[in-house]
TrEMBL record:
The keyword DNA-binding applies. This is DNA-binding response regulator. It comes from the Bacteria. Residues 144-253 form the HTH LytTR-type domain. GO terms for molecular function: phosphorelay response regulator activity; transcription cis-regulatory region binding. InterPro entries: CheY-like_superfamily, LytTR_DNA-bd_dom, Sig_transdc_resp-reg_receiver, WalR-like. Pfam families: LytTR, Response_reg. One of its GO terms (cellular component) is cytosol. Residues 7-124 form the Response regulatory domain. It comes from Candidatus Dactylopiibacterium carminicum. The modification 4-aspartylphosphate is found at D61. Transmembrane segments: none annotated. Keywords: DNA-binding, Phosphoprotein.
Amino acid sequence: METASLSVLIVDDEAPARERLRNLLGDLAAEQPTRVIGMAGNGLEALRMLESNPVDLILVDIRMPAMDGIEFAQHVAQLHPVPRIIFVTAYDEHAVQAFELNAIDYLLKPVRAERLGVALQKARQAAPLTRESLDVIAEPRRHLTCSERGKIHLIPISDVLFLKAELKYVTARTAGREYLLEESLVQLEQEFPERFVRIHRNCLVSRGAVVGFERSVGEDGGEGYWSVRLNGLTELLPISRRQWANVRAVLGD
């Protein structure tokens, strides 16, 4: 039976490395048919390309500026359908051990044709990587992802003022606008414990954005409550009585 051709995206910040992978794929075309749909120099550029050019397989370098290969893969894992991913790396003992422990395929540079052929065959049969398996080996992300009408928005974590759970979504608020995320507030709290603090069961705020606290009067003159004011926002966010002591301990009086 004829082997189906895989559409491939190559992502590496070094042009010679991208060309080498494309040439190797060409050398293997008889046994492992592929079509190189595009090549990108970093993860941000690659995500933009995937908006209009979905692929079956991505070959991605780990060490890249702006967004490393593992963070890129975390964002890719939220696409539908999810492409297969093979990581490419110069020898990195920590990364290699993590990949082997979590059954994630990788290629060591300089990539050899025989090893690439084996990886391509495995990719045809393997299930896409899950976000959970990638989170185990990843550093905290530098971006969050929001998909709107087929376009991928990348939100720098440093721009996020607060995160609020609403129904099945989480709203990420920046100074400019709101974004809907298909993520869990609990997972975000665990991933970024140094950046965000919980002020309510449904809300995390950026520690660096807090400029002060205000006492508000309760409805009908009832018991008052504290709210937090964030830099650049007129909206006050209420702090639950349950979280007030922890907020004071973390952020100060």
